[in-house]
Design a protein that fits this description.
CATH architecture of the largest domain: Alpha-Beta Complex
Distance between the termini: 55 Å
Radius of gyration: 21 Å
Strand content: 5-15%
Oligomer: single chain
Number of domains: 2
Order of helices and strands: HEEEHEHEHHHHEEEEHHHH
CATH class of the largest domain: Alpha Beta
CATH superfamily of the largest domain: Aminoglycoside phosphotransferase (APH), C-terminal lobe
Length: 346
């Protein structure tokens, strides 16, 4: 450890671990791990070489329900006995007296998140990328086969229409950001109305990750998903919405706007989005004939999210130093274009 870990009272945390996690023996070497929605995440290595990962929210005032360590802990604890690969749940501290916030400790996984094309090329050989994509789909299918009631997650979220709730939340975000962004687009309103008018029956609720992608999966040395991480925005909802979000990051020959060239999936060797969707349908037996509805919904949601961030920059609520606002506005337009294209395929 070369410096004091941000947000952690090392002595207090190591004392707590000594008293609560017998498989670890402090003192630790602390190594900062990047990623994870700005949560303060460190790899811990004790004198015997045992490894674990500790995670807590960032310092400062947080939005309600943001960086929810309790939610993440509940999910990895509940999913541990299921086929869904998650890190082992080792210990959870709900007392802010120890280090100023809740934190939890989980097992350390031999795997890497993939954020961009260079990381994929470095870690996953081209002839193994189909295997990775198949594992990626199969793990999501396994998650969506879990009955939340059976594993004690029935209170993870509301049981009504996930898509309807999301449409309400993100449309409110769009309309409230129009003035600050000095930017509106009629397609945002037209698409929201279309999605409301054609709301699908979501069927039995399932756990939805909410941000399932190669950046939130740890890919092991064998080029399969070793663990899924970053569960803080997971809830109960429609599994097809979760599937469409995950697959939107993969290329397809029919795309009129290709995925960004720097994306983790923008390298040779991956199957098409259509092939991955077919594999999911075979694994789960779910009807994916209207998957374009969900593709369109997720593109529209992305536009609303970026629009809200863009508005905060334009209003001066966030520093725009180093931010390409023209590119951000182009992203909003592109997401709405892709949403409309998906809807038109229905």
């Amino acid at each position: 450890m070369t410096e004091t870990p941000e947000g952690y009272n090392v002595e207090a945390v190591e004392t707590w671990i000594t008293e609560n996690i017998p498989s670890l023996s402090p003192p630790f070497e602390w190594l900062r791990l990047e990623g994870g929605h700005s949560n303060l995440t460190y790899k811990l290595t004790d004198m015997a070489g045992n490894e674990a990962v500790i995670r807590r929210p960032p310092q400062g005032q947080l939005l309600p329900q943001a960086h929810d360590m309790g939610r993440e802990w509940a999910l990895i604890s509940a999913l541990g006995p299921t086929p869904v690969p998650v890190p082992a749940a080792l210990g959870f501290c709900e007392s802010p007296d120890v280090t100023g916030a809740w934190f939890y400790v989980m097992g350390c996984i031999n795997g890497r998140p993939l954020y961009n094309n260079e990381e994929t090329e470095d870690w996953v050989p081209e002839d193994k990328r189909i295997e990775l994509a198949n594992s990626f789909v199969d793990v999501l299918a396994d998650l969506h086969d879990v009955d939340p009631v059976e594993v004690g997650l029935e209170d993870l979220g509301k049981h009504d229409s996930y898509v309807a709730r999301q449409l309400k939340t993100w449309y409110r975000s769009w309309t409230s950001s129009v003035k600050g962004a000095d930017y509106d687009d009629p397609r945002a309103h037209e698409l929201q109305q279309f999605f409301l008018d054609n709301l699908p029956d979501q069927g039995p609720i399932r756990v939805v990750h909410g941000d399932y992608g190669l950046h939130n999966c740890l890919t092991g040395p064998d080029s399969t998903v070793a663990a899924v991480v970053d569960w803080e925005i997971s809830t109960l909802g429609d599994p097809l919405a979760d599937l469409a979000y995950a697959l939107n990051s993969f290329p397809d020959p029919n795309d009129q706007i290709p995925i960004p060239p720097e994306a983790a999936t923008a390298v040779p060797g991956f199957p098409t989005r259509t092939q991955m969707a077919a594999r999911y349908a075979d694994r789960t037996g779910r009807d994916i004939s209207r998957l374009d509805y969900y593709y369109g919904f997720n593109r529209w949601k992305t536009a609303c999210i970026v629009h809200g961030v863009y508005a905060r920059y334009m209003e001066g609520k966030k520093s725009s130093d180093g931010i390409d606002l023209v590119h951000m506005r182009t992203r909003i337009d592109g997401a709405l274009t892709l949403s409309a294209q998906a809807v038109n395929r229905l």
